[in-house]
Write a structure and sequence with these properties.
This protein is an all-alpha fold. Helix content is 67%, strand content 0%. The protein contains five helices and no strands.
């Protein structure tokens, strides 16, 4: 006897879910995927923001010193500005609090960069002016006076530091960048 390959219609089991359930599951999967992409973008932006903010704070402190290396600070600040630009690359995906903090510190970073460039121009012009007929001792005194920022520029840097510290309190940073040992200030953007 041979086996019969014909099955009756009642013997078949329905393996597929109803069409409405499949559509709902696809919509839920798409929403979960979108939330994941937004979350990943926010995490990457906040990480870039935290690194750029730490660099900005160290540059502000270095710029406030009398013997600041302005060329090094300019290079560091250009990199810092690029880090903030990278953090703002996810602008459409950012939460409002993270976006505001990033924009605020990016503006502070641009101000510091312009102050450093202004101080470099003053330093170069004073070095060119002093290279003419002044004595060697005059050159040494001028170079020591212009090696850092002027008093007015130092005040601006201190003001920027204060503004930056004020914007740090609502920061999306996972930990306070001014004191790495403090874990009580965990502020998260989500």
């Amino acid at each position: 006897m041979s086996r019969s390959t014909v099955t009756s219609p009642n013997a078949r089991k329905q393996a597929k879910a109803p069409l409405a359930l499949r559509i709902v599951l696809m919509v839920v999967a798409a929403v979960v995927l979108a939330v994941g992409i937004v979350s990943a973008g926010n995490i990457m932006a906040v990480n870039a923001y935290n690194q750029a903010t730490q660099s900005l704070e160290s540059n502000i402190k270095a710029a406030g010193k009398d013997a600041a290396d302005l060329d090094m600070l300019k290079t560091s600040q250009q990199q810092n500005d690029n880090q903030f630009a990278d953090a703002l690359a996810f602008n459409a995906l950012l939460l409002p609090s993270a976006k505001a903090s990033i924009e605020s510190n990016a503006a502070t970073s641009r101000k510091l960069t312009s102050l450093i460039e202004k101080a470099l121009k003053q330093q170069e012009s004073s070095q060119q002016g002093s290279s003419g007929s002044q004595a060697e001792s005059d050159k040494k005194s001028n170079s020591s006076e212009t090696s850092g920022l002027s008093n007015e520029e130092r005040e601006k840097v201190q003001e920027l530091l204060k503004q930056n510290q004020q914007t740090q309190s609502p920061s999306p940073s996972a930990s306070s960048s001014s004191s790495n040992t403090s874990t009580s200030e965990n502020v998260k953007p989500w």
